[in-house]
DNA sequence: CGCATCTTTGAACTGGTTCAAGATCCGTGG
DNA sequence: CCACGGATCTTGAACCAGTTCAAAGATGCG
């Protein structure tokens, strides 16, 4: 909320060009020309695990790019339960609806400690008008959101509990380390449309059958072939955004 | 594919302004100014029930606005089964991905005889560049797609079979007539992630319990309060897009 | 009329839920 | 440093919604 123009936040977009977050970052392919157009502040922002980025209905004046961590977008059900509608990984864009709506339409909560960039919609709107490149980027982002939404439905709401958990493992596996940080069982339930008990049991079974190896609390090393087999896909790619 | 500039299709966008499809139509709030920018053909297009609008992977050179009927967007599963990812009602936009991708990413098939407008992406891109109004519209449409995708997940992939079928009834009920045209049981299954048998049984049960009244083959009159009660919502609105 | 397709219904089976009791983890304060 | 208490995770057993397999009606079309 507070628009502190103080030293806490790195100003300007200059840094964006060298952003560690590869192709994904919203501003990745802008020219110097483009950057000259903007002098509005882009804030660095950290959200701790379990922290709320925003709630549904909050007035929306910024969109966010996720640099590291993991954010879940949630709808609360009439009965008080929750359903995870999508999970955003580093490089993803969060809260695009700010560009067309007064308020956010989900609850955005961190599943892991996360770092983000908060970009005021004024910046986007200006660039959107004046830089064809960014304009295309924005449309792309939106497309991305639809694609991910559809995939989420396919992957996480279709098939047996075993298949879903396996797909979630693949989705959450870091290509670099080959490790998979699972969220709490309750979150898993809300993502897959199953109960926490079933989530727990299924994971236990995977461990017994050697589909995944225990590494640390809620951290596992999936055996790729095994997991894929259980997930019911043999060739499809999953995980790599884009 | 064939760009017949012959008499078969109404040219120009002049008609769009008076389009029967109310607020929803993509070009609803353009000015005369805007319209003057375009002279490219907008084709009328009819697709019969079970007809294919496009397949996943088809080269995408147009987007579509649905004037009447009902279109399902489908993903085929590795095992040959299908999953309905979204259903578009009159006023909705189909194939937006054409604006950012070479190809369509779903299969689009008519659940009922449907009438659409095919709009070449060149038209959209031109207007998008030159008319801020349409530009906003396009973003809005994209937002709409995400919202509908999320809702679809919530409504059709959450809760018991009874709840899902009830929600589908509400979704498909025409406010004008109060009637609900249900698609084939197999389609219902693919929409709700249940088997055709369960779909059939559930509908039969609804009939017995007087939740819906039989009108004609696959046409029912839902008792609104009853259905809502079963759907597990008492106050929420469902159905009215926007 | 006759064949193909779709829908309904039945009955056995099963994956997942539910409810309940332990086990494990973790922060807190003594 | 350890012991306590709350939260989360695991496991068990009974139950039930939904699946599966199979067969009998409908419906529509040439």
What is the strand and helix layout of this fold?
The structure is a homodimer of 242-residue chains.
Chain A: H1 32-36, E1 43-47, E2 52-54, E3 62-76, E4 82-88, E5 93-94, E6 107-120, H2 121-130, H3 132-156, H4 161-172, E7 180-181, H5 185-192, H6 196-208, E8 212-216, E9 219-222, H7 224-231
Antiparallel strand pairs in A: 1-6, 2-6, 3-4, 3-5, 3-6, 7-9, 8-9
The structure holds a DNA duplex (30 and 30 nucleotides).
Describe this structure in words.
2 copies of one chain form a homodimer. Helix content of chain A is 33%, strand content 24%. The first copy, chain A, is of the alpha+beta class and 242 residues long. Chain A folds into 2 domains: 3-155, Jelly Rolls (Sandwich); 160-238, Winged helix-like DNA-binding domain superfamily/Winged helix DNA-binding domain (Arc Repressor Mutant, subunit A, Orthogonal Bundle), CATH 1.10.10. In chain A, strands 1, 2, 3, 4, 5 and 6 form a 6-stranded antiparallel beta sheet that branches. Chain A has a 3-stranded antiparallel beta sheet with strand order 7-9-8. In chain A, helix 4 packs across helix 7 (224-231) and helix 5 (185-192) crosses helix 6 (196-208). Chain A is elongated, with a radius of gyration of 19 Å. At the A-B interface, strand 4 and helix 3 of A face strand 4 and helix 3 of B.
């Amino acid at each position: 909320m507070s628009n502190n123009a103080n030293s806490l936040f790195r100003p300007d977009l200059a840094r964006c060009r060298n952003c560690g977050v590869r192709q994904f970052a919203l501003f990745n392919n802008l020219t110097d020309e483009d950057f000259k157009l903007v002098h509005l502040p882009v804030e660095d922002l950290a959200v701790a695990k379990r922290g709320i980025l925003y709630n549904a209905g909050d007035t929306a004046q910024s969109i966010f790019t996720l640099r590291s961590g993991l954010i879940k977008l949630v709808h609360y059900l009439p009965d008080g339960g929750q359903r995870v509608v999508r999970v955003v990984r580093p490089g993803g864009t969060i809260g695009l609806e700010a560009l067309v709506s007064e308020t956010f339409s989900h609850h955005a909560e961190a599943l892991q400690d996360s770092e983000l960039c908060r970009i005021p919609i004024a910046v986007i709107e200006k660039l959107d008008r004046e830089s064809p490149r960014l304009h295309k980027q924005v449309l792309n982002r939106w497309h991305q959101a639809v694609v991910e939404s559809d995939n989420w439905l396919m992957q996480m709401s279709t098939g047996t509990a075993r298949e879903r958990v396996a797909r979630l493992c693949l989705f959450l596996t870091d290509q670099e380390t080959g490790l998979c940080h699972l969220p709490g069982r309750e979150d898993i339930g809300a993502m897959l449309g199953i109960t926490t008990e079933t989530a727990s049991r299924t994971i236990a079974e995977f461990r017994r059958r050697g589909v995944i190896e225990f590494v640390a609390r809620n951290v596992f090393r999936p055996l790729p072939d095994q997991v894929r087999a259980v997930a019911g896909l043999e060739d499809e790619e999953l995980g790599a955004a884009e």
